[in-house]
Amino acid sequence: MTITEKPAAATPADSAPRKDLAAVVYNPIKVDLDKLKRLVGAEQTAAGWPETLWLETSEDDPGQGQAREAIAAGASVILVAGGDGTVRAVGEVVHGTDCALALLPSGTGNLLARNLKLVLDDLELSVRSAFTGRDRTIDVVLIDIEREDKSVDRHTYLVMAGLGLDAKMLANTDDDLKKKAGWLAYVKALLAVGKDSRELHFRYRLNKKPEQSLRAHTIMIGNCGSLPAKIELLPDASLDDGLFDIVVLKPKGVWGWLQILSKVIWENGVLSRIRHGHKLRTREVDALNYATGTELVLRLHHPEEIELDGDGFGKAIALKAWIEPGSLIIRVPQDA
């Protein structure tokens, strides 16, 4: 699928010039607000834009309400300063609109920014790009999560959804430790759930094909596949190919985990980065299976923890996930 690009402030030739307006949705815990306001003010003035809107997230509203307020006010670009949860919440509202999303990486994972290959540690560049960059479109994934009480809630995610090890790990992560130690908190949680050998048992239907049953340790449905520490969990996943990529982990003992580590760390992370390295990649192994699709319907035998873009979303008994191609506009640097 070809990336769609257009100038950041393009308007039809026969219409009045568009008056650009920026809004910043920020998590006060994640940002240096004084520095951010100084940088935004300088770029806003240089671009000749009106006063930027400033909208703070809260525990009760991590970004959806603020995004709606910004769009209602006429914002043409929303700068998101927060973690992956804030980005996901704002993207949930912005996708399908003409408003662009600009990322100001501020969290622990910065998963979408990593997969877009944006600079993670240059706030000045990120802010400047929001006012002077170009637009590209990416896919988003919508997901209906059915709970044990038969209620269903709908969400949007931009990076990855998971059932199994990663969701259990997030459910066991100490939020206070995460604030202090970052990814070390996930290591502690991983050790806590690593002894859990219970498998997921589910029925699934991919791309409306006949239903099948499967037992697995973990299943992840990714819009993109890069994780921190240069881990390429889904090496062929792309943000703009109109597909999501699925990985299923089915390790049997120590050998199974060694197969997974070899594929993910060595083949995906090392061989894929060197010239002709893809020719050295092995075939699919029993412990690790890949698939692609546009729609997945899955029903579990027992409720299981589910995560979206690195945040726990409680327990699911069933889900339906589907792709919406090219439905989110992302503002990136001109030379990205």
Automatic annotation (TrEMBL):
<keyword id="KW-0418">Kinase</keyword>
<comment type="similarity">
    <text>Belongs to the diacylglycerol/lipid kinase family.</text>
</comment>
<dbReference type="GO" id="GO:0008654">
    <property type="term" value="P:phospholipid biosynthetic process"/>
</dbReference>
<dbReference type="GO" id="GO:0005524">
    <property type="term" value="F:ATP binding"/>
</dbReference>
<keyword id="KW-0444">Lipid biosynthesis</keyword>
<dbReference type="Pfam" id="PF19279">
    <property type="entry name" value="YegS_C"/>
</dbReference>
<dbReference type="InterPro" id="IPR050187">
    <property type="entry name" value="Lipid_Phosphate_FormReg"/>
</dbReference>
<keyword id="KW-0808">Transferase</keyword>
<dbReference type="GO" id="GO:0016301">
    <property type="term" value="F:kinase activity"/>
</dbReference>
<dbReference type="InterPro" id="IPR001206">
    <property type="entry name" value="Diacylglycerol_kinase_cat_dom"/>
</dbReference>
<dbReference type="InterPro" id="IPR017438">
    <property type="entry name" value="ATP-NAD_kinase_N"/>
</dbReference>
<keyword id="KW-0547">Nucleotide-binding</keyword>
<keyword id="KW-0067">ATP-binding</keyword>
<keyword id="KW-0443">Lipid metabolism</keyword>
<keyword id="KW-1208">Phospholipid metabolism</keyword>
<dbReference type="InterPro" id="IPR016064">
    <property type="entry name" value="NAD/diacylglycerol_kinase_sf"/>
</dbReference>
<dbReference type="Pfam" id="PF00781">
    <property type="entry name" value="DAGK_cat"/>
</dbReference>
<keyword id="KW-0594">Phospholipid biosynthesis</keyword>
<dbReference type="InterPro" id="IPR045540">
    <property type="entry name" value="YegS/DAGK_C"/>
</dbReference>
<dbReference type="GO" id="GO:0005886">
    <property type="term" value="C:plasma membrane"/>
</dbReference>
<protein>
    <submittedName>
        <fullName>Diacylglycerol kinase family enzyme</fullName>
    </submittedName>
</protein>
